[in-house]
Amino acid sequence: MPAMDTLLFNDPEVKGLAFAILEECTDLQAFGRRMLELLANAAMSAKADEACNAPYGERDEGRVNSRNGYRERGLSTAAGDVALKIPKLRRGSFFPEDLIERYCRVDRALVAAVAEMYVMGISTRKVEAVAGELGVRSMSKSQVSRLCECLDAEVDAFRRQRFDGVRFAYLWLDATYVKCRVEGRSASQAVVTAIGLDDT
């Protein structure tokens, strides 16, 4: 039965496919995008085979489910937009959560880049332009705004965390002015930095 660890590059068929893709692609980013698409779809297919307890298209007495086509979905990545073919099953649902976060169309690298730009106080319009330069054409101003709203909640939770019961042997305090978001807008603010060294 296929598994994730069988998707190795020492397979001559996979090597041949990788070289064929390299020849058809005009630049390294296109090659990376195409390889990511190929590997993600192959990994999802292997996961679906595991869920069915049998390889796709083969008769097997141990089969517990069967395939029912694909659900196409776009995923925006730092390499650009890739087309995913998520297998559907006849009974139940299938979504490879460990491969793709449900309903998330932007990969973690891009989220980290957007988060950094956001923390630096860069406008959503400029963030949208930078995302376009990274090859993500589908990231709109409203998507950037929604992502920033999620980050607002995370930043607020971080700011409100408590250190009850923690003893600090040393505490360094400093302040600097930085561009940041205040009430949804970019502004220059004094930021106090506290670095604590606990006594353990």
From TrEMBL:
The keyword Nucleus does not apply. This is Mutator family transposase. One of its GO terms (molecular function) is transposase activity. Required for the transposition of the insertion element. Pfam families: Transposase_mut. The keyword Isomerase does not apply. It comes from the Bacteria. The lineage of its organism: Bacteria, Bacillati, Actinomycetota, Coriobacteriia, Eggerthellales. Keywords: DNA recombination, DNA-binding, Transposable element, Transposition. InterPro entries: Transposase_mutator. One of its GO terms (biological process) is DNA transposition. It comes from Eggerthella lenta (Eubacterium lentum). Belongs to the transposase mutator family.
